[in-house]
Every structure is written in structure tokens, then in C-alpha cells.
Amino acid sequence: MAQVHRPFMIQSQCIRQLAPRCGTTKSTHLWRSWHSRRLHTKTVTDQDISRLASLPLHPLTLADLVKHGRPPLTTPQLLSSANFTLSILPSRLAHRIQSLRNLPFIVVSNPHISQIHSNYLHSLSTLLPWAEREITTLEDEVKFTEVMADLVQTHSNTISILARGFIEARKYISAKDVTRFLDEHLRARIGTRLIAEQHLALHFSSQPHQEVMHEEVDNPGFIGVIDTELKPAKIIRHCENVVGEICELNYGIRPYVVINGEPDYTFAHVPVHLEYILTELLKNAFRATVEAGMEKEPIEITIAPLPDYHHLPRVEGSDAEEPGVRNKDQGNVDVASSAFTGLSPSSAASADPIRPLAESTPGVTIRIRDRGGGISPENLAHIWDYSFTTFNEEEVSSTLAGQSPRKSTNGMDALNAISGPGGEGAHSLAGLGYGLPLGRAYAEYFGGGINVQSLWGWGTDVYLSLRGVGRVDVGEKED
Question: In what residue span(s) does the Histidine kinase/HSP90-like ATPase domain sit (predicted)?
């Protein structure tokens, strides 16, 4: 290994200490004070935004994120990851800025929504100095990784801030338009955050930085944030414990979960995504079961391998599309925001060719069955809405005063206080109704989905399907 100079070692140590994976208040304060002095920025012009937003957005696949190799990455592999990340993030940030600017001016003027707009401008300003160059040295890679840490922290509370902004601006934009915009914007945010976090994880598990830090990262099966040996049953048990403890604390009882099917099955996916989805689905199942007085009936969870679509028999004359990773499911088409301008969505985004999934992409289907009485017909039609868009004036006042708007007399509202994905605070999403629509966004992002079948008066079956990476073949490591 080439000699590493002292400043490089200091920078590498600082990044590790301030990495957003820590999630503590102390690390956040350290990050803000240190990064505000260190990051080099460039003024973002309207021309920069227009140019970058006109570039094609490619649907992101899990295979894209593992193509640089299995950790610990060599120096050439790490530099390849950094340059791949740099090649796709600026245009994605520009699309988000343009999307926010397409909202009615009085809505964007809201201080909370304006803050999100400023956050995206800031992140793009930290990437522009790198946009016209290639990362060729470890010193540059360290500095670029600082930018990725800054990006992840800057956007850690985007969801709750946007929600508060749209609540305050409710007189100037319809609930239907808010739902469409958020569904698109938050899906795009999933990809942006995942791309940055993947490089951060690969950075810490790379050969040169392990040597600098004199320690090894022991995560067998992981390639960055992707677990190639993800065991759904293990995630289910973890989520069951988290939700069950809160349920028991407030009710004095907790339903029990039975796992059947193939509990030893594994596939490749992002564990934090599956954990968030399952937590939301189990919260709903536990709540319904307890409130229906059916806690003696088990919540039955079945794990089954997702069939390989290409090996299923074709139905003659069927027009069904092959499953794939679509720009629409990843929030890349800017349809929702373009509706306010009267202009068609970005042709570059909508015309980008869709890359199908690989021939063999093993995945999983998870069915969650409860005896909680089902979902009433009037509520079933709205389960994918962001609930805060239907708040009455009293609920709006409670939310703006910092209180959860839909307190339950039996204390079950505590289930809403479980931390949201992507760094959201424990209480920031409580009562806002983000659970199911955001869970579906995570599921659909890589070609999966969530289907709900309710038997009113009996119970609910929820089918979660997720596509994996497929065969991970990254070849031999470079010297």
C-alpha cells in the first residue's frame, strides 16, 4: 500500500466518527461543526439545475450497487464506487430541486418546504466541485466521502419537515396533489440516500481504510448496505420484539407470531428496508388484533421464495409486462410536480429505457395474516393515502403544536412513535400516516410490491414481495 499522509489519516478517522450510521445527537453536533468548516462548495446556478435535470435518469437496480466487488474493496474498486456515485447523484438532486420549484410559489414559500429546497441546493453545491472531474486518488475519495456523509445527514429529517410544511400550506394545495407529490418525491429520496449510504459503507469496509484505521469490519455476506444472505425470518423476529414490547407496555398483552413456510430461506436485499416495511405491517396487525380482542389468535407469517418470472408458463394472448425496475416506481418521472406548470414531464426521465431484472433474481413473498377484523370498506380505499392530508382543523392545530394529532385513549398511539426510516426522529412521524404508503414505496423500488386483502369482520392478509440482487458474481479482486 502507498504511504498515507497524516492529514489523510485524520480525515478518514473524522469521517468514521461522524458517519450518520451512528445516529446519536452527539455525533450530529460533531458532524455539523466539523463539516461546516471543511466542505468546499460551488454556487448552484439555474443553468446548472436545468442542465443536470435534463440528463436521463436510469432506474437503479440492486445489482448496480454490488458491481464494484465484495468487501474489502481494493483501491481501484473503491475509486470505481466513488466515480459511479458521482456520476448519478448530481442529476438526481437537480430533478428534486426542479420538482420542488414546480410547486405553486406560495407553497414553496412555506419555511419548511423552503428549507428542504435549500437542503437540496446545499447538497448539489457540495457535489458541483467534483462534477467535472474523476476521482483518482485516495485523498480525493476521502474528501468525496465527507460530501456523502454531509448529504445523508442534511436530508435525515426530510419527511417530517415536508409533512409540517404541507400541513401549514393546506389552503393552497389539495390533499390529492400532496399525496401525488410526496409519493414521487419520497421514492426518489430512497434512491438518493441509498446511493450515498452504499458508498459510505463500502468506504469503511475497503482495504485501504481498514489499514489506516487498523481494524477490520466483520460483516460476512454484506456488500455495503446490502445483505446477500438476508434471512427474512430473523428480521421478522426482531420487528416482532420491538412492536410487541411497546404493545405489551401499553396494553399489558401482546399477540404472538407464528412463522411458517421456509423460515431458513435467504436472498439478497437491503435489511433496513425490509425492517421498516415489516415494522409497519406488524404495527397494523398487532393493533387490529388487540383492538378486536383476538390476541389469543396467532399472527401467522408465511415465507415463500418468489417464483422466477421467466420460468413461469406464459398465458397465451397475455399483455402482462415482465417485472422490472421502473422509473415511475422510483419517482424519476416528475409527473406530480409537472402538473402544476402545465408542462410535460422531463423527456429525458420519461423516455429513458427501462432495464429489466436479470434472468434470475431470487426474491421472497411474505404473507402476514391476522384475525383483527379486517379493514372497513370506507377505510380500505384510503390505506395508501398520507393520513395527515385529511386532518381536520383540530388535528392540524395539535400537529402544529407539536402533539400527535390522533391520540388513542388506550395508548396504542405509542406504536406510531417507532423511528421512521432514513434517520427520522422517533416522534417526528407519529400520527402522520406515513407507514403504509412509504412501506409500499420501499417494496416497489426494486420491483416488488405490497397487496392487501381484507375480509371485513374477519381479518387481513398482506402480501409483501421483494426482488433480490440475483447471482452476485463480482469476479476476482484487482491487485
Answer: 269-470
